[in-house]
Write a structure and sequence with these properties.
The chain is 46% helix and 15% strand. The protein is α/β, with parallel strands linked by helices. Strands 3-2-1-4-5-7-6 form a 7-stranded mixed beta sheet, sandwiched between helices. β2, α3 and β3 form a beta-alpha-beta unit. The chain is globular, with a radius of gyration of 24 Å. It starts with 21 loop residues before the first helix and ends in a 20-residue tail after the last helix.
Length: 524
């Protein structure tokens, strides 16, 4: 079978992962103290791109050349449709990883990324991934990989196997029906007082959580023929033939040991012999389920002074409202309270006067952020970027160069929102990745950009034509007047809070419009 046991009857969800962007990966590498050789215009490859939303967003909002391979022809067709409305710097193929290796035009890459792939593909595909990295990742290039970790799944693995075997035994019905049938079967087993669930309460909690999730997501996550959680050390050993060294985690909060580890755990880790042992031990301490790791071909470390010098020059933008900062952050040891004074001062340094954009050096010298130290800001950046409050930004010349591609992509997405709510993102040339934008917000932008009259009426006409109604406070709004009133209220909120934010991200003008000059598919 061409799908090698992977669930291919239903397509994957239309997700977007900003941590795969060149800007965010390079920033994560810097935070981990690692050097790399990735230029501002990288040659970038994503293996297993799904619907291609992340890859299209990153190609449209960054300079360089972008490649992608996903063996699903349906998903590749979808990604190609979006690519026609991007920057023209994206090549997509419905190749298996083995087939991709045989392409004579496959270049050398500065970055190779694969998210949610490694644990779900067979050994032959993993071997091809290693070969691609060995033969086609440049020295100093970055390699991102995510995978399930044994330490967090050991008590749940038998449940997954039970579900997968039942799913496999069902010959009839759709994928969704078979997933739901497997969940119902596992529930019957649990309610029949199976000792496994009594001895593994984490499995019981997992099953109850799964019943609340989208069956299509579950099909891709748990029902493939291959489902192989691995130890960190096993992944390191598998990647060693490609000369890849572990650099660190792209999950920035992983770098805050005090929210994850007890003093005794930190002491034990300090005596661990070797990277692999230390990584496995840490995963056991925190019961790690999923890792997002960055490797580099040829490990080189910044000196503390060199890292500080580079970080001081890095610019960030405030990409969320100050009120969105949570009270706590979650660590393996539980919730940790944020220092409101420290974070309040840091966020207050970003204002309309400086375009909500500052370098770390600017933050240090801002009167508002006094008396914060460099060490405090260094740590706070991990939190604020991970929480989506701040984002590293591209230089002005890059923002201007990529803008035609982001305008073209956003014009398509806003136009399509009238009949398709799949992609709830727009591309930002400022931060070089996608920004979450609701379907109604896309339609507001489309109405404003095309002069379609009252944006609330525009949306209501579309909803009414399809027999759709809005909900408020858990109830359906039946009358046209109630629906229009709700849409008008949402539009006012959009004007007040969202347009200014999207404007500084380069997504819309100050009036909430996109530039339609570049609209239309690229000539091929």
């Amino acid at each position: 079978m061409w799908n090698s046991g992977y669930v291919s009857e239903v397509d994957y969800t239309f997700g977007h992962f900003s941590f795969l962007s060149p800007n965010n990966l390079k920033f994560a590498a810097l935070m981990e103290g690692g050097k790399h050789s990735v230029p501002d215009n990288p040659t970038y490859l994503e293996l297993g791109f799904g619907q291609g939303i992340s890859l299209n967003m990153h190609a449209a909002s960054n300079p360089g050349q972008y490649w992608g391979a996903d063996f699903s022809p349906t998903q590749t067709s979808t990604a190609l449709e979006y690519a026609k409305h991007g920057a023209g710097n994206l090549k997509l193929f419905d190749d298996s990883f083995q087939d991709l290796l045989r392409r004579p035009d496959l270049p050398q890459f500065d970055m190779i990324v694969l998210h949610g792939i490694w644990s779900w593909v067979p050994p032959t595909a993993r071997a091809a991934i290693v070969e691609i990295a060995r033969d086609h990742l440049k020295p100093g290039g970055l390699f991102y990989i995510s995978y399930n970790v044994k330490a967090g799944w050991e008590g749940v693995a038998p449940l997954r196997d039970l579900l997968a075997q039942y799913y496999k035994s069902q010959r009839g019905g759709t994928v969704v029906e078979r997933v739901n049938a497997a969940l119902a079967f596992a529930t019957e087993v649990m309610e029949a007082d199976a000792k496994f669930f009594a001895h593994n309460p984490i499995a019981k909690a997992q099953l109850n959580q799964m019943k609340q999730k989208d069956p299509i997501y579950l099909a891709h996550e748990f029902f493939n023929e291959t489902w192989d959680p691995m130890n960190f050390s096993e992944v390191c050993d598998a990647l060693a033939p490609a000369k890849l060294d572990h650099l660190g985690s792209s999950t920035l909060l992983d770098g805050l040991d005090h929210i994850h580890l007890t003093p005794k755990a930190k002491d034990s880790l300090s005596h661990a012999s070797g990277v692999g042992v230390a990584g496995d031990l840490r995963d056991i301490f925190v019961s790690q389920r999923f890792r997002r790791d960055i490797f580099v071909k040829g490990l080189r470390r910044h000196t503390p002074f060199a890292r500080q010098r580079q970080l001081l020059q890095q610019k960030f933008m405030l990409i969320n409202h100050a009120a969105s900062l949570p009270e706590t952050i979650k660590g393996a040891r539980g919730a940790a309270k944020l220092d409101r004074d420290l974070y309040g001062r840091l966020i207050s340094a970003f204002s309309q006067d400086n375009g909500y954009s500052l370098s770390v050096k600017d933050i240090l010298t801002s009167p508002v952020s006094q008396p914060l130290t460099y060490t405090q800001i260094d740590q706070a950046l991990r939190v604020l970027v991970d929480l989506g409050m701040l984002a590293p930004i591209s230089p002005a010349e890059i923002v201007n160069a990529v803008r035609p591609g982001t305008e073209r992509m956003n014009a398509k997405l806003c136009r399509d929102a009238a009949f398709d709510d799949s992609v709830k993102y727009l591309a930002s040339p400022v931060i070089g990745t996608g920004v979450a934008v609701s379907r109604f917000e896309q339609m507001f932008i489309n109405s404003l950009s095309r002069g379609l009259g009252d944006p609330a009426k525009y949306i209501w006409q579309n909803l009414e034509a399809h027999g759709q109604r809005l909900q408020r406070d858990g109830g359906i709004l039946d009358t046209a007047e109630a629906n229009l009133a709700e849409l008008k209220s949402q539009f006012q909120e959009f004007q007040k809070n969202r347009i200014p934010l999207l404007h500084r991200l380069g997504v819309v003008s100050s009036e909430g419009k996109i530039d339609l000059t570049f609209e239309g598919p690229l000539e091929t």
